[in-house]
Amino acid sequence: QQQQQQQSSGLVINQNSSGTVGPSLWHKPMHPSRLEVFKTLREITDYLIIKAKHPDFKDLSYFTNLRAINGGRTTDMLQALSITRTSLVSLNLRSLFHIPKGKITIEDNPELCFADTIDWKQLNISRPEDVTIRNNAESSKCRAATLQCHEQCARDGCWGPGPDECLSCNNYKLDEYCVVNCSSTESLGFLSYEESVGTL
């Protein structure tokens, strides 16, 4: 059986009326669920480019285990991460913490919330001026749809609305969740503090 993919070079997801362009192949239009293949991906050595719209393409939870985009090689625009003109509502890149080289561009995503909450310096970027976040969903629209960071997220921002999408926590972290205190574990599905204390 083929080993699960944990590393990739450059990755392009670009769906339009003609098809989807990958790193070296031309594909027919596909459903976003096909991106589940990237669930085990932990590292991209070069860049990640996303420019796609689909009624079911609402977040990037397909890359929930992605930890690093290294920017070893960048695009012609010197980008390591580019997310433009998509149907995304949230990013959900909750494991991502390292983008040491290349520019970050997230723009022209009319439904996208959360991107402007993130303190991108926390991702080990080389130059804050290389981050462009603009023309995404208005903050008032996000608030009206209750698409805001969880109350347990610190000021660093978040990738999505859940307590497991925070860059850092106001109080404590249990597994991947930000919590007020140990007694709040029941609301996260844990049976009791005593049974969960080993994971604190």
Describe the protein.
This protein has 200 residues and is mainly beta. It has one domain: 24 nucleotide stem-loop, u2 snrnp hairpin iv. U2 a', Chain A. The chain is built from two helices and twelve strands, in the order ββββββββββαββα. The strands form three sheets. Strands 4-3-2-6-8-9-10 form a seven-stranded mixed β-sheet, with no helix packed on it. Strand 3 and strand 4 (26-27) form a beta hairpin. It starts with 6 loop residues before the first strand and ends with a helix. Mean pLDDT is 83; it is low at 17-26 and 190-200.
Distance between the termini: 36 Å
| Biggest beta sheet summary | 7 strands, mixed
Q: Count helical runs.
A: 2
Order of helices and strands: EEEEEEEEEEHEEH
Overall number of domains: 1
CATH architecture title: Alpha-Beta Horseshoe
- Output the CATH homologous superfamily: Receptor L-domain
How much helical structure, as a percent, in the residues? under 10%
Number of strands: 12
Largest beta sheet: strand ordering: 4-3-2-6-8-9-10
Beta-strand content: 15-25%
What is the CATH first-level class name? Alpha Beta
Dominant shape: globular
pLDDT averaged residue by residue = 83
Q: How large is the radius of gyration?
A: 18 Å
Return the CATH topology: 24 nucleotide stem-loop, u2 snrnp hairpin iv. U2 a', Chain A
Unreliable parts: 17-26, 190-200
Would you tell me the structural class of the helices and strands? mainly beta
